[in-house]
């Protein structure tokens, strides 16, 4: 069998980790569990993990790691028969090992208690079957969602480059793109602060005065950083007549507890508005209750164990809720997908397919289908989820530019993840993401989107 080159860019290009960093496996070659790790145990490099001597054997009633294929052999898409799939990758924006140190997580309330800040517990409670032990290590916030950090980066040269690009008549759009598109959230924050200190001007206002359209929207999304952009999108989704539920899904679903608390607190601080109250005022019935569950930030942490008996119970609950009776108990489905960790959701999906010989996602339909699919795909294959979401933003009549620009910017914060998304897109749609974007966008907006996915 001929050697199949891995997905992703050649070493040293955009999407490859800097020298000395632990590389992310290319899409389709990801091992099912890192060597020496077991389901139910946090990775050896995980923030707050137990001492190494606690590893070595799977805890009772938990899964050992499946055997690994020979080095260099292409992993088949999907887990081998009879095995659970891999624990999912870290949340978007979280640095690979060897980059900035993990940020201090927000204090984690006891499982089942209301989230801090008076947001309250979800209005619907279902049995948790023993999931979510209170002593598991909290998942740290994604890069840009935790407290400010000092980083070894001087933003003076980049701030000056941006100033020159917007000085005098005309704008050097190419310079704006080159300066901003490859910076991580912490670097962007330094650039914005340095620009204000050196020139006494707000960088976002300067950009808005120089450019327009979705090119402007993309640049502003980068300069805001992922957390403030999430809050801006929530306000946009909830203001005015109607609700943009696709934006709500993109921002709120599949998030870690730490990220969700950061979003709620920053929304309150920035707009002097309570996000939970805004959701209640704008949504109704099951959709409202679903998002209130999500806002409670009571998900099982990434370090919570995957226990076979509990997975089997969830699978049967989902079967009964979707086709074991007339109608669908959507709130039970929402509760399971909202409360479980990504690794648990992945195991649930795999077991469901084994038991009933069809994918769990085929059971979803109706008004809440998009939200449920988003949560399921976050646990099963986050890169494929984002590839599908990007295609959705470009398919049908006209390109949905608001969704496209924000989905590209959201994925671009994690270069390793972006490389995985491009591989997933190629695998599913048999064309490159870059060629698809070029066919749907024009001008400086196109150039920005192409730069953000690491292409030219």
Automatic annotation (TrEMBL):
A cellular-component GO term for this protein? nucleus
Q: Which GO terms describe its molecular function?
A: calcium ion binding; calcium-dependent phospholipid binding; phosphatidylserine binding
Q: Name one Pfam family in it.
A: Annexin
Keyword Lipoprotein carried by entry:
no
Segments of skewed composition (Low complexity): 35-48
For the region Disordered, what residue ranges are annotated?
1-148
The alphabetized UniProt keywords are: Annexin, Calcium, Calcium/phospholipid-binding, Repeat
Q: Does the keyword rRNA processing apply?
A: no
Extent of the signal sequence? none
Show the ranges annotated as biased composition (Pro residues). 1-34, 49-70, 77-100
Query: Which PANTHER family would you find in this protein's record?
Result: ANNEXIN, ANNEXIN B11
Q: What's in the domain note?
A: A pair of annexin repeats may form one binding site for calcium and phospholipid.
Give the protein family: Belongs to the annexin family.
Q: Report the protein name in the record.
A: Annexin
The species is Marssonina brunnea f. sp. multigermtubi (strain MB_m1)
């Amino acid at each position: 069998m001929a050697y199949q080159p891995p997905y992703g860019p050649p070493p040293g290009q955009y999407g490859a980790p800097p020298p000395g960093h632990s590389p992310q496996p290319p899409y389709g070659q990801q091992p099912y569990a890192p060597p020496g790790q077991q389901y139910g145990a946090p990775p050896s490099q995980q923030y707050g993990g137990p001492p190494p001597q606690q590893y070595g054997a799977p805890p009772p009633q938990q899964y050992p790691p499946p055997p690994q294929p020979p080095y260099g052999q292409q992993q088949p898409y999907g887990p081998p028969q009879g095995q659970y799939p891999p624990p999912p990758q870290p949340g978007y924006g979280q640095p690979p090992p060897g980059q900035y140190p993990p940020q201090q997580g927000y204090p984690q309330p006891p499982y089942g208690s209301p989230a801090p800040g008076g947001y309250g517990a979800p209005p619907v409670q279902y049995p948790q079957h023993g999931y979510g032990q209170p002593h598991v290590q909290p998942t740290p916030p994604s890069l840009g969602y935790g407290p400010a950090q000092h980083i070894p980066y001087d933003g003076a040269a980049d701030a000056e480059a941006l100033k020159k690009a917007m000085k005098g008549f005309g704008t050097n759009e190419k310079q704006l793109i080159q300066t901003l598109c490859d910076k991580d959230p912490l670097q962007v924050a330094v650039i914005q602060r340095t620009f204000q200190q050196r020139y006494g001007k707000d960088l976002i206002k300067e950009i808005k005065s120089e450019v327009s359209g979705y090119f402007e929207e993309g640049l502003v999304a980068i300069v805001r950083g992922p957390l403030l952009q999430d809050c801006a999108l929530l306000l946009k989704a909830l203001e005015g007549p109607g609700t943009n539920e696709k934006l709500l899904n993109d921002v709120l679903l599949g998030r870690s507890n730490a990220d969700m608390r950061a979003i709620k607190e920053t929304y309150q601080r920035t707009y002097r508005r309570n996000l939970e109250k805004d959701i209640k005022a704008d949504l109704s019935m099951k959709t409202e209750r679903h998002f209130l569950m999500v806002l409670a930030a009571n998900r099982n942490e990434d370090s919570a164990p995957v226990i076979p008996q509990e997975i089997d119970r969830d699978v049967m609950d989902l079967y009964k809720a979707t086709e074991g009776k007339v109608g669908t108990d959507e709130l039970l489905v929402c509760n399971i997908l909202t409360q479980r960790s990504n690794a648990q959701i992945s195991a649930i999906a795999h077991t469901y397919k084994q038991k009933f010989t069809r994918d769990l996602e085929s059971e979803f339909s109706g008004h809440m289908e998009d939200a449920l699919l988003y949560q399921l795909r976050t646990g099963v294959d986050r890169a494929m989820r984002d590839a599908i979401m990007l295609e959705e933003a470009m398919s049908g009549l006209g390109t949905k530019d608001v969704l496209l620009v924000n989905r590209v910017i959201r994925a671009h914060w994690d270069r390793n993840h972006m490389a995985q998304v491009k591989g997933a897109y190629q695998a599913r749609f048999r064309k490159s993401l870059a060629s698809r974007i070029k066919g749907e966008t024009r001008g400086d907006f196109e150039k920005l989107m192409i730069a953000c996915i690491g292409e030219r």
